[in-house]
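Sample A.
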Amino acid sequence: MSKLFLTFDLSLFNLILSIMSHLISSSALVSVLGAEKNNNGADFTIKSLKTGKDYTYAISRSEFKGNWYTHIKVEKGYLEFARLGSYKNGKIYHKGQVVDSPSAIAIAFVLQKVEEGKIEFLDANVEVMHKGCCLRCGRTLTDAQSIERGLGPVCVNL
């Protein structure tokens, strides 16, 4: 009976951990944008401190013919993501056209500021939250330091 109870408690703990969001510095996105490695990335939420508006994104990277692409999806319903497009030079493109939806403009702005190294500006104006998975590879984060920074021990050094 106690073994069953322990299993239930661990399952409940993992469920709670998976739905919790963790506030991190936008500097964690530097590693995601600079990754020269195919990855699935992870889900994260960006919230404007000025407007209170938030969007949840899934970001990944892939290589095609020697060029690296950052792919962006936005949450349309609970854990249902739709492709926005690919990030390049401060804009989101889909099939060669600039995407100008509010969610595309928001993530393009944030990623451009990350590329420009304006982390302090971002941290003063937006909150970046993850839900317990590495922003680079998507694996579950299990130790306090990794959860606090949003990157696992391997990805933080890449």
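Sample B.
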Amino acid sequence: MPRPNGKQIQPTLPLLSYLFHRITIRSDCTYQGIPCWIWNLKVDTSNGYTHATWQKTRYYTHRLFYQVFVGEIPQELHIDHLCRNRQCCNPTHLELVTPKENTLRGESPSAKQARQTHCENGHPFTDYRTSQGKRRCVTCNRLWWKKRFHSLMQLPKDDPRYIKYREEANRRQQSRRARLRNAA
């Protein structure tokens, strides 16, 4: 859905009548003791947000309410639902934030991972590597390689697993040497 400009909309009597006849104030859904205002029409099933059409322009209802009751929405900012209810359009539950802040406040996998401070074994993520988009704890990674290397070194020299490991190690070493030669 195209994003209408974020300028403040003047609260006229017909607009206020249109808005307030289409909301339900729910006391069972609150944020800091203030009830949510739930829009009764047009819930978009693909993303859970609600829509309103005013003067032949389609708006997300939370954006429309913010523009009417609070003010302008700068192009580079998003509106965050503090109550975590996408159908809520109560202006006191809405806050302007950067897209990054909006993502980090959410419950998506990327937001959960960004908030994570320790690996699953309790090591702090002060030193980590990203591999294929995933954070990896350096301490756990070192322990895993040490265990793997130690177990391979205990195998007899004619064991197929040891032979395969040595072939892979030689191949990696030759590749590394070739890259260094090409770089020089």
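B remarks: The CA atoms of residues 29 and 81 lie 13 Å apart. Residues 13-115 form a domain with the Homing Intron 3 (I-Ppo) Encoded Endonuclease; Chain A fold (CATH 3.90.75).
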